[in-house]
Description:
The complex is a heterodimer.
Chain A: E1 6-14, E2 21-30, E3 35-39, H1 46-53, E4 61-66, E5 69-70, H2 76-81, E6 83-87, H3 98-102, H4 104-108, H5 113-126, H6 131-134, H7 144-155, E7 162-166, H8 174-190, E8 194-199, H9 202-208, E9 211-216, E10 219-224, H10 226-231, H11 236-253
Parallel strand pairs in A: 3-8, 3-9, 6-7, 7-8
Antiparallel strand pairs in A: 1-2, 1-4, 4-5, 9-10
Helix pairs in contact in A: 5-7
Chain B: H1 2-50, H2 54-67, H3 70-81, H4 85-109, H5 113-121, H6 126-156, H7 169-178, H8 181-209, H9 217-247, E1 265-271, H10 274-289, E2 293-300, H11 305-310, E3 316-320, H12 321-328, H13 337-352, E4 354-356, E5 366-371, H14 372-378, H15 383-389, E6 394-398, H16 408-415, E7 422-426, H17 431-436, E8 442-446, E9 458-460, E10 473-478, H18 479-484, H19 487-498, H20 501-512, H21 518-529
Parallel strand pairs in B: 1-2, 6-7
Antiparallel strand pairs in B: 3-10, 4-10, 5-8, 5-9
Helix pairs in contact in B: 1-2, 1-4, 1-6, 1-8, 2-4, 3-4, 4-6, 5-6, 6-8, 7-8, 8-9, 10-19, 10-21, 12-13
Protein name (chain A): ABC transporter ATP-binding protein
Keywords (chain A): ATP-binding, Nucleotide-binding, Transport
GO molecular function (chain A): ATP binding
Amino acid sequence: MSVPAIEFKDVSKTFDGSGYYAVDHVSFSIEEGGFITILGSSGCGKTTLLKMVNRLYEPDEGKILLFGEDTSEVDVVKLRRRIGYVIQQTGLFPHMTIADNVATVPKLLKWDKQRIEARVNELLKMVGLEPEEFKKRYPSQLSGGQQQRVGLARALAVEPKIMLMDEPFGAVDAITRIGLQEELLRIHSGLKRTFLLVTHDIHEAFKLGTKVMIMNQGKICQFDTPANIIHDPADEFTAALIRSAREQEKLWEGYV
Amino acid sequence: MNEIWIKMQSYFANSLDEYLTSLGEHISISLLSLLVAAMIGIPLGYLCIRYGRSKRWIVGIFQVLRIIPSLAVLILLIPIMGTGVRPAMTALVLLAIPSILMNTADGFEQVPKFMLETAAGMGMTQRQIFWKVKVPLAVPYILTGARTAMIEIIASATIAAKIGAGGLGGIIFTGLGLNRTDLLLVGGVSVALLSILAGVIFNLLDRIFMRYKYTGKGEKRKMRSKMKRAAAACLCMVMLISLTACGGNKDSDAKGNKEAEKSSVIRVGSKDFTEGMIVSEIYALALEDAGYQVERVFDIAGSVIHTSIVNDEIDLYPEYTGTGLLSVLGMDLITDPQEVYDTVKDEYEKQFQLTWLDYSQANDGQGLVIRTDLAKELGIKTISDLQKHASELRFASQGEFNEREDGIPALEKTYGKFDWKSSKVYDGGLKYEVLSSDEADVTPAYTTEGPLADKDKFTLLEDDKHVWPPYNLAPVVRDNILKANPDIADILNAISAKMDTESITALNAKVDVEKEDYEDVASEYYESIK
């Protein structure tokens, strides 16, 4: 059996003064190349869990291993440079051009200019943006969807083995979101990378995930393939979640 | 208007070097102050955010400091730092710090948390986050703060001239002192243009280095409102300046005499300085003693009081014979006291229907003062002696003295060139301070100024070649008042007969040096001579 890409061993996290676990004694492991979606309502601990992977938050208890390596024993800056990170607000730097934004990590790693330029062009093409048209623009000149594509390109710059995405499409309109989801699936299929995507949209979770992790109140309710979860929900919360999704679908049935 | 234009042209033709020096001083003081203020304000602003709780009190302290007018700061600093460029810069730096500090704090504060988190998430070290994300995003705010500070500094640097730090303020104060609109305009407009130029330069910097701000659509609107604000600021400046320029130039067309008198209320006027107010108060007390009702109209600017009496706004006031001769009548210089008095008496009667009553021996004329220890050391008693030693002495001039016809030009015509070791301009109120603190050795003064009562410290030099006209004090009264109340002449002449230079100097000293109330000093003196 190969070493899992990400492994949580009895990990807990509380925030000062909150008095309850944001993440409550969680254990799981993710095989390399999986596209894992983490689904839950706000406050369920899904973002906290994600941010512990690249140590934006430190766990209070338990261990997190990446490819068998304890993250707490690795230099935090080096660790993060190996992990792609995308957030809902894109976090693009407004004072840098698109090219400079995408080249952020390669520059931190002191790649030479030609290599950076070639990589930027490649990445922009990969996320569906024409390099010559977009390279010299600033983030404020792009639409929300385009900005998120740049955010994606930036996170992919140094071919990280693990990508963390925190509701990346939460702020774009429905049509753009579908386009971006397709793009993301395409990018994932071409590379042997482990994607971890947090969402509160059940359709997004089940559409993208090779496996879906359902969280509630800091605990994992179920972690399985979409088909298994739909056919055999593990607890009442998961069952309710699926029922509510089906209820919503009914809305469309009368309008054939 | 045309006349002012010609005067301005001739000013530039004759004094271009002087102008450029002032301009250079103004710019260098302003830039240095900004630099120092930035070196203090930017780190403090950052610390405010870094250590959150300190923000409130740091900002608080500087807000309070900012309320203190720069002029007050200057005066407060004199005992500590003396005069010159250093205290001037200190005042300007204090003025400039708050806007830089607060904008820096705002700049660092507005960087969104999620942006910092993504930066960290991508593997930037704290230092890289600071230099590559925080600083670039804070810079536009810091620039805004610096721009505000720069404009405030440029405007306020005019007062640096009050304490010998030079700059365009010198031209403005000279203009105020001589009531010369051309100089006021040259100085004021230059300051305004400098401010505008500074604003433009900062906007350009912002445009060049912060290009990203001006790409989105929303930002353009912000930019436009910024330009509007700048334009409004410029307009205010220009209006202020034209106000200062016009203020000193009040219309002098006479309203004509009113024939009827306002019963027995006598309006006694006074110029707006200590001696004028003491003497006017003495006149008023004497008139009240004789049963008149007196209305005191004190604090009239020296340059407009003649207009006031001609326009029937006051009935009498103490005037100096020399002022009447040179400033009011614009006649040629005469140095014999009796001859001056006779001339002004005749001319005032003819031209203005005003009567000069008897003149007193009190002579408040122009003089030069030297520190007593130095006078003894070098054996200087007269202005002729002084001229020989000029190259060893530092001269503390006041605004208009170097320009005024009866100032340096008259001195040099009679005594020869004065080759001062150095010559700086100070505010008139500081001259004794400057001499006491050994920052200068010689200063122009008026011969009855209070501090001169202390002869161990200051020595008034004898005008041995009679450059300066006598400035004897005498009451000037409207003819119609005198006709209706002839006894006024006797009442006031009795007072003039008792006054001399020494007694007036002593009275001035009581008010200016010992800080007594001028009304008490006047009544005490009046009781003693009555």
